[in-house]
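User: quick one
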Amino acid sequence: MPPPPQRHDAPPASSVVPRQGAIKTPVETPSLLRRYVEVRSFSETLCEPLALEDYVVQTMPEVSPTKWHLAHTTWFFETFVLARALEGYEPFHPAYNYLFNSYYEAAGDRHARDRRGVLSRPTVEEVIEYRYHVNRAMAALLSGSAPPGRLAPLVDVIVLGLHHEQQHQELMLTDLKHVLASNPLRPAYRADAGPPEGAKAPPLVWHERAEGLAAVGAGEGGFSFDNERPRHRVFLESFELASRPVTAGEYLEFIRDGGYDRPELWLSDGWAARKRFDWQAPLYWEREGDLVRQMTLGGLRPLCHAEPVCHISYYEADAFARWYGARLPTECEWEAFAERAPAHEGNYVDAGHLHPEPAKRMSSPGPLQLFGDVWEWTASPYAPYPGFRPLEGALGEYNGKFMCNQMVLRGGSCLTPRGHVRASYRNFFPPEARWQMSGLRLAR
Amino acid sequence: MPPPPQRHDAPPASSVVPRQGAIKTPVETPSLLRRYVEVRSFSETLCEPLALEDYVVQTMPEVSPTKWHLAHTTWFFETFVLARALEGYEPFHPAYNYLFNSYYEAAGDRHARDRRGVLSRPTVEEVIEYRYHVNRAMAALLSGSAPPGRLAPLVDVIVLGLHHEQQHQELMLTDLKHVLASNPLRPAYRADAGPPEGAKAPPLVWHERAEGLAAVGAGEGGFSFDNERPRHRVFLESFELASRPVTAGEYLEFIRDGGYDRPELWLSDGWAARKRFDWQAPLYWEREGDLVRQMTLGGLRPLCHAEPVCHISYYEADAFARWYGARLPTECEWEAFAERAPAHEGNYVDAGHLHPEPAKRMSSPGPLQLFGDVWEWTASPYAPYPGFRPLEGALGEYNGKFMCNQMVLRGGSCLTPRGHVRASYRNFFPPEARWQMSGLRLAR
Amino acid sequence: MPPPPQRHDAPPASSVVPRQGAIKTPVETPSLLRRYVEVRSFSETLCEPLALEDYVVQTMPEVSPTKWHLAHTTWFFETFVLARALEGYEPFHPAYNYLFNSYYEAAGDRHARDRRGVLSRPTVEEVIEYRYHVNRAMAALLSGSAPPGRLAPLVDVIVLGLHHEQQHQELMLTDLKHVLASNPLRPAYRADAGPPEGAKAPPLVWHERAEGLAAVGAGEGGFSFDNERPRHRVFLESFELASRPVTAGEYLEFIRDGGYDRPELWLSDGWAARKRFDWQAPLYWEREGDLVRQMTLGGLRPLCHAEPVCHISYYEADAFARWYGARLPTECEWEAFAERAPAHEGNYVDAGHLHPEPAKRMSSPGPLQLFGDVWEWTASPYAPYPGFRPLEGALGEYNGKFMCNQMVLRGGSCLTPRGHVRASYRNFFPPEARWQMSGLRLAR
Amino acid sequence: MPPPPQRHDAPPASSVVPRQGAIKTPVETPSLLRRYVEVRSFSETLCEPLALEDYVVQTMPEVSPTKWHLAHTTWFFETFVLARALEGYEPFHPAYNYLFNSYYEAAGDRHARDRRGVLSRPTVEEVIEYRYHVNRAMAALLSGSAPPGRLAPLVDVIVLGLHHEQQHQELMLTDLKHVLASNPLRPAYRADAGPPEGAKAPPLVWHERAEGLAAVGAGEGGFSFDNERPRHRVFLESFELASRPVTAGEYLEFIRDGGYDRPELWLSDGWAARKRFDWQAPLYWEREGDLVRQMTLGGLRPLCHAEPVCHISYYEADAFARWYGARLPTECEWEAFAERAPAHEGNYVDAGHLHPEPAKRMSSPGPLQLFGDVWEWTASPYAPYPGFRPLEGALGEYNGKFMCNQMVLRGGSCLTPRGHVRASYRNFFPPEARWQMSGLRLAR
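Assistant: Done. Structure below.
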């Protein structure tokens, strides 16, 4: 019996996905092209630690395979930009509109969402080729190759496409986390030092706001999604907002006080979900006697009590708040405070922690960690603002048609690309969703 | 072969349920006892047209058998009043708390909601005996037999129990309608003359309200549920409200224009529901070629185009509004108009139509049919008002724990007991519910 | 507050269903009419202890409401006899073919089996009228009113219809048992003295049969179903058959030895069923500490160890046999012994026990209790005999189309009408069925 | 924008899986080692055409990912041979017993069957390493390294393990076929020339066998599974067996005659399955107007009418037979003819067609194509032979525990390894299974 053949190395990431600098931009590139290259190549950077097999699987209907994300974000540019900008543009593959349309009824029939994980083809390599093909066409378009007047009306769609890709970058990581955590081998996405030893969260204090009118929603300048508009007035009664998110240690108290066994703390649908799914703790927590460990993108590690609690459903956030004697803020209350906070600061994906960090005492007078770390469930059902108008055409399906049965989350997370969120940004998920980086902040 | 034995007559209603006057009230009865007798005996009056078998069956999980309603409303008084008011009160039957508790976690374990139709026992007769037993004890309590000081703190609960019974009176009829309509024999609850021939609805016009603060919710005096409180301020942008509900004829136009086949008109969850349940028209509509008939409590009869459309889900109401180029009002917008309308007028259950009626031109300056006829879906998810506090104890489960995944309906219907609704009244159902008397009114 | 009105008496059985003698047969009645009256009225006799509500409910898809059984057996005669025998026969009601056809594809569309319990109409009274209507027509037919030559070809179908009704008589009782046992009130069908105190089962001994050819199946004379034919030869290796069915006490030993927790004793599908349904004991056994009680048609009562175990699935019978170091007999092995046993003796429904009885030591040389008491699961999948020919037309659906995924049971039970079974009789149920009177006998 | 980086080549098959000759056997290798190397390396040979992604996905619960098959067959040798033969043998990975145990309750807990496709790790490369690791240990064991007396008792298990691996070789291909056919891109496993043009099947004629005793089952010499034993006698009535399997063209006639719309042709469970799954034709047939194409391992290609029909359920086979006026043979009838046929001839996997071929007229006096091409559904439920004894210990779960709710198929297919089947070989699948190479032959 001979020695086994040479190891088959998992394809080195560098051959599968170009490093961030791989798509070199020519001198004089217009800034939109530079932005395009930055955003698009970051999707590939995020794939570097993966084995090829990790691109393929789907662990639950809400999770999409990595290769699907890579292809779908590409399809977005092909369908909504290239096909409109370029006379006679031929799609890269005739079946890709069917395979990589997510939910746009106006863009035609599509592959079932919960069957994305049964597709071994196109291969990862073919998806990467698809990305390059579209990237080349986009680069040509953005470099001036388009007929005059063709590009201008599409600039807004291109910018939207880049924000869309950033949303999928966060989803790629939350979906991968679910894939890796579903595996009995508990593989890490990336080795990781873990949280600082002995970290302590600052005490929770309250920030008050007096009653009165507030302006809510995105104003003129700068990018915003249609669901953030129009800016409008709401009347807020006086209230207080907590200085930081609820920590894992505080949440552990809730558990130890029987929080998961006391129906009086829960919404009716929440209690039904808690029983149906047999929830005993946040997703990814694993308890062995008194020890709690949690699965992170850095692998399985002990729970850090000082960090914001994460991976809880709206129902759990709501039950915790009731147990605490407080409540969740509405999204307008949250925004009233966040408007004055610096959205560009915070623990975002580029910080590399890939996990919420304990709050740091700061001299800042306002609430901490409004941005980054964890998305914060609010008490607000996702609904249209007064005077809301969805985008025209198929892109009108981007946000508006989901305005039912979902709750609003605010502030971004440790997996959100820096620069992607703002005070008026409205994220939304069904109340039972737990695989996103969802935590909570209290109000009263 | 001899002639068959004498007909077995279905038990005459008068022996099953006492007529309205059967519980005679003594001279000098305090008004609460008089009210108690009135409300309680009306539940039995509603049963008069039934065959004994009609009391028993459950056609879907949301529908409860009539005898369950009769027992559950009785359990409410036994549990929340008698057991608290009377030292050593013995429940009528030790198993009834288990059988007839609807959803009160604090009141103990209970029979599964979707298994209410498998219980042949207790028999209808036994349930009626249960009602009489509790009625006698309540009558004694309300006539002064209780120890001093025991009654006073329970008066609010008794009043709540009567409003609770009225809610179940409407449910008894909507549930029975489902039972009868599910039967291939299409039996009528009560023979019925049907709508006036050639009725025409007045044209839809718009009533405007200028932007500004509005006060919303129940004020001090008079009964209200906890979910209507506290009264508080909201800022409303200017808007217009339609002068009457959408008619069946207008809804038919929506259908004929392909409304059920155009996903762009629907919310995402709505389109999924429309496909999952294969909705093609409102519940109870039956189409034969161009003819549309609908099942009513008076049996199967031709659709009257002038009457308000009914038995549609929130999703259908929302899709119709989008098709029309309008939207649904928020509950606050609705209430801003309804506050000035006379809630005691309207087509309620006592009118005996048991079906929505075409609007009548009136000299009144405001919108028509805000009260009675059909519950109107609003654009508002059911959520707590700022400062909301549920009742203490088990009764805190009455409303508060349902404040998620449901939409608010306003105004009462042709099956609502007169005097039960008011401008601040908030009904709520999941967005896919269709077996209630649910229609819509437009805003823009 | 006046006294309650007079008790509403549940309709006295005598008005709902005629006593056995109610359908008087004229002098000179041909024997088939006499038999018809006997069998048909026995269905009604079985209903005497019921409350009207008991006729209506359906506790699982396999259970049919009593009133459905009463109507379906009537529909059988109307459809397969009267409609063929009488020129221009008008069905009693145009919708009854739809409502009361069980599974005959050739007889047209039908109401869904698992929705029989949602039908409050026709009422029990109307069903009884339907029975009388058909009875009168059948009596006329059998008394000579039919045109010459019309009756003769239908005699076999009438006889089949009577055996069919007898099958439903057993089902009525097993279905009612499920209805009553599903009710937290645990009502009894009929008060009952219970088993004799201190009963002991005789020891289990083995009866041997030498290898050789055996003739199996129904021969010429006498009624038999198509699935019992043709009589044919099989080769049997030598084997031994147990002298009596397994007792409840023996089964208890199996449980106490961990029988329900040892997958090595179970078939793969059986172990899956045991886990899916969380089986811990036979259906209707209720354990409180060391005490075992069982729900019977006589109400809840202590387990009698000497009686044959009942209400077990094929999977449990098979696992018990493996635990015991034996196996189940094939149906041919069973029949080889039963052919010589007196089928007319045994604990059948007319004995009035309505429950299996402990075996009695007898001087008879062969196995005890082959007939009556409990149906015995065999190791034989239900399959056609060589040369099997189903009946012509719709009645060909009676047996043949079920010859897959079911196991054969033999011997009849304490709920089987006397005279209904014979040595070649093949009953069949899916292997997970437990609500029939199913026990087991060992072979090796 | 630079040119894209170098193509990422899918790992060349040669690095993932050794070619057939890669595991070189030393001079003087005992024949069992030679056989071990042959069989094991053929599993890898079958993987050569795959993309790495193809190893990972699971398209339905019954389908396992290729890498799971590769690991499970390895686990079999590790668990049942190495762990018993070698003192202190350390499993390759502590979690692999959990991940790659298929259904052996006695071997411990295991990963859910329907979740095999959510595992991206271990990677394919790691699974291949696992194979090599076990191969090296097995080679050492078979080369004489084991302590004296340790190998001898395990030789039967090793031989069983090789037959087990051959079974999984067929499953790998049928599962891959399902994976590729589920993909809208319809990729081929291997480019393929397709069937010979103008092929015609010889006419169907009948071969008769007179009534009498037959010996059935495996005799002494040669390998057989426990379920083929013991050899025993059965009595067969006279019957006729068709000279060849039913062809696709004959099956098309059944379809065109309304076979899928006539419930009278179907078993009750079969008709329910036909409606539940909306069967209109065999699996993998795609109809466009009059043209029928079918998905094969060679890709999508026109239907060849002369080839045996394949990918039908038992229910369809049974319905076809009824439509034809014939029936399926029992497994004993089939075996009575097959005992005299040459099992080593036939269209097996090594022929490379990977698809059933039209029958060729031969001078042979007996039925054609009894072996190879398509497995033939028989009328026999899978049940133990008289005197059946499963293997001892965990391996007793190999066959015996599945003897319920499955039907026997005989004869092997075009995907079966040559030398794997024999006249007494009993394959078995649930009656609704269609993804195996299942066809039918008629009897009467």
